[in-house]
């Protein structure tokens, strides 16, 4: 216990120290939200990866899908690396950086408002982002606190409140730069931690060959005749597995807190290096998490109060017999993953609410002449006021998500499915196509907002007749034909406006 407490105290002290160290760079809006658009490839790649993988993956998804699909759940991690990291950087990295800097966009809702010439789109996108980032945040809290409760014996409620408080401190002090620096430190812990934990769990089962052989003797649910699906290449439900791969991999390209990382990177050469770093990180961390979860059936399941398997307790139950030093490393691993994701979520939410709802500055398109000017002193005061409002909203967002986390309505995986389904279902297609295709119309963006949010909410209100995971995947993929078809039959934006926005790619 002494080792676990000591390492945790040192870890938290470093996180807060980085926040205090970075406070001078967080005095302006660009500094607080984007790190001055000068964050290097290593920090950006690790910020992307650590925001991607949190306790939601390590505790919730690895436990639930490892139990459901066995070793084939490793394909989810492979998909996260190839689609969610490599393809996301290749498709979005350069074009997002260039266009958002060209049109002076700081958030995803701001991009929609400027790119499609509609303040209404900007407002509605910011509301969607704020509302549906909350269940994701609650899922992260639940994941870290479940494992913390196992490792330290501290009641769940105190764990949730403590993690929220420490995350708030370093984000409020240092903004995005502090978050990125801490993400790098947390990412290093995650890399070493997942390798050590996998090695320890497999060794405890008698080695990799023995563990796989044990898994191969377990029959599919409801069958006593056909053993082996949990040790097979594609598991007992390949189509269900594909839905999870799509949701957790493709969804990153439509999430504000993920795409925002491309806004802040320094230049195109940094994007190329960041692509490689981010992909390798994802292979190790995501692939390792799901590979570990695939052995969950070799342990006795935890039965919840409702008489069903408590999926969120599967991974903690696998780790509870490890030596204290390794449990301390696991706690730091999940703490690192979760705090980085929490920091990204609260920063995204507060900046979106401040810049896209409270202070909606009217901007000219690139190449247009702005009318009038604002005194530099007045402008600086406004900038500082915006940063103060963002810091206040960070606290507000954390309190709301805490209230949900203290009484979570469902499993972590379902919380994330609802959040990712609505956000990526609404944002993915119009954002990606808006970077590449001049013909996307404002009506098409509205249609996709209605589709993504509407499908998710209706499914939820009807008691989830479609599994939230599959529903999210349908919402994301369905957005592309909707945007394309609606754009073909609705009025286009003025060609001169679109030309000015796409001029950034000709430089």
Overview of this protein structure:
This protein is mostly helical. It has one domain: Sodium/glucose cotransporter (Up-down Bundle). It is 74% helix and 0% strand. It has helices at residues 2-21, 29-34, 41-52, 55-69, 74-102, 108-115, 119-152, 156-204, 208-216, 238-250, 256-264, 268-293, 314-319, 324-358, 376-405, 412-436, 442-461, 468-489, 495-502. The longest helix is centred in the middle third of the chain and has 49 residues, at 156-204. The radius of gyration is 22 Å and the shape is globular.
Q: What attributes characterize this protein structure?
A:
single chain; mainly alpha; globular; Sodium/glucose cotransporter
Q: Quick gist of this model?
A:
The chain has one domain (2-361, 383-406): Sodium/glucose cotransporter (Up-down Bundle), CATH 1.20.1730.10. It is 74% helix and 0% strand. It is built from 19 helices and no strands.
Q: Which residues form runs of ≥5 with pLDDT under 50?
A: 369-374
Radius of gyration, CA atoms, in whole angstroms: 22 Å
Give the overall form.
globular
- Assembly level: single chain
Q: How many beta-strand elements? A: 0
- Helix-strand sequence: HHHHHHHHHHHHHHHHHHH
Kindly, what is the distance between the CA atoms of the first and last residues, rounded to a whole number of angstroms?
Answer: 58 Å
CATH architecture: Up-down Bundle
- Kindly state the mean pLDDT as a whole number? 81
Q: What's the CATH first level?
A: Mainly Alpha
DSSP helical segment count: 19
Task: Kindly report the name of the CATH homologous superfamily.
Answer: Sodium/glucose cotransporter
Give the percentage of residues in beta strands. Answer: under 5%
Give the fraction of residues assigned to helices.
over 70%
